[in-house]
Fold each of these.
Amino acid sequence: MKRLPVILFISGLVIYAGCASDPSLRSVKPVAYEKRMLVAVSDIQNQTGNGEYDPLMGGLAGSLTAELHEADCFRVIERQKLRSIMEEMKLGMTGPADPARTIAAGKMAGAQAILFVNLASVEYSSKKNSTFFAQDVKEKIETTMDARLVAVETGEILAASKISIPFTNRYSSFCLFKDGEKADQKQIVQQSLEKAIKHLARDTAWQVSKRSR
């Protein structure tokens, strides 16, 4: 009977498998093809100051392009076409991340608007609760992205969106027993980015579809 409290204590150390809340997606009514805006997608920028996330940016623009296409609200310029034009414009330009350069390239490609997307921040926090033989740790990781659709001719912001994806993880230990483990922050951020891209594309399409009617 003396072992029962220990067993109950161990079972009481709650484990969270990492849990990230999924953002709700806008329902977008398709826009007639002849009314669809012709857009180009800029390279996604990491503005967190943490270079560890730079490699994650590469594949996101392609995913964003696919999401925009599936929204049935835009005509999307092939990214290779935009890249080729930007390569030809190297002289006199400040760099690949310069918005003015991207807008100029988009204009040459025939785009009506450019979609700029940023990884704005990744916030990490943890809280520990310890007793003589036990420790409980709760982690929070919040990934925030933002987007703005800019008209090529006027510089007007046609749509703007922002999304934060929270993730919670809890792991515990009691003597030699361990329940759960520390979250792989880079992996969690990558998963959150994929969810955020879907939200930003759908929200941008929803805003533009209202203007197109």
Note: The beta strands are 16-20, 37-41, 45-46, 74-76, 113-130, 134-151, 157-174, 177-179.
Amino acid sequence: MKLKIFLILLSPALLFSCMTPPKNVAYFQDLEKYLQNKVDGSNPLMYEPVIKKFDELMIIVSAPVLEQVTVAQFNLPMTSYLNVGDLGETNVQQSPSIQTYTVDFDGSINYPVIGKIHLAGLTKSKAIENIKNLVSKYVDIDNPIITLKIMSFNVSVLGEVLKPGTIPVKQEKMSILDAIGAAGDLTIHGNRERVLVIRENSNGYQDFHWVDLTKSDIFSSPYYYLQQNDKIIVEPNKTKQLESKYGVAEGYKLSVFSMVFSAVSVIASTTIAIISLSK
């Protein structure tokens, strides 16, 4: 009898000891298991930017010094802007800027001398190769140098992060972790198990994919490295949703009431069990 009463009294303590902070706050909780299952020598996650419609591209064709004049016809002229001073005088901007190409709705750019070049859907290296082959048809140069850069490479991070907004990606490569880090990390109210990535595919439609940052399989996901104009939306957790529905004060009171009600229920059920056993 005493043993049964002891076990009944012990059960509430065990119950409340299990009320630890939620495990969904930490990132990559199964990392050790992921590393154990990872096959050594497997192909690494490769990434190369793909050109899309409406991308803004900087393309420069260059060659050895003696042949630079020959390829100059394939480059857009530098532009200078006129600035009007306080006294009304007009000054030419000292640092001219490079003109860019915008990929049109058909996925092409209008290139000097060559004309239309279709680039949408091509990787950066493939686009450089295509432009190089086209230029070589017009000039007798063995190895013209093609420099291509996606100037409009931006990603946006919204929702439960410290600094939501648009992030320019100068190096044309950014992982979802880099983007979240640039946004100041998730707030304590961010749902790490449901982070939405919105990506525009080659057909112009939106793809939606949910990422679980508590799982390590993100490292092998095609959404680990971001593409230009990707949108990352961090959903609020249940606590934040409760606060937004009832207000901060009401949500806090409701959560406290829920805890008190659970405690009272446990104590009541324990008391009833003790009384029934003592009879």
Note: The domain at 1-48+154-279 is CATH 3.10.560.10 (Outer membrane lipoprotein wza fold like).
